[in-house]
Amino acid sequence: MSASELPYxxxxxxxxxxxxxxxxVNVGVVLYCQASDxxxxxxxxxxxxxxxLDPRVSTDQVCAALEFIDAVCAGDPRGGAAxxxxxxxxxxxxxxxxxxxxxxxxxxxGVTTDPxxxxxxxxxxxxx
Length: 128
Prior knowledge:
Blueprint: E1 6-15, E2 25-33, E3 38-43, H1 47-53, H2 59-74, H3 87-95, E4 102-104, E5 108-112, H4 115-126
Antiparallel strand pairs: 1-2, 1-4, 1-5, 2-3
């Protein structure tokens, strides 16, 4: 790793409309880079893909949950108490397993020279 490369961690956000079936659609990515104090989410909701898994899934609720994640990342009061914590703690909160329709996948890592651009790349590659 060169001096200009920054280590980062990320999680893929999955929409799991029917957890008992263990099927999901990737809807977002959260990237945390401690070295550059970067924590941000990127997301896209493909309504057709979600409705293919479960036509009853509320895409409005999925988008509201993703907007909450945006608020936590940004330290916005709409993210509740979690948004008041340091970025590393916020990432820990976001990567914690949940039994809701929106679930984080496992933590992955890498190195980058530009965390924002890396996030765009991951969203494009992993979410579509």
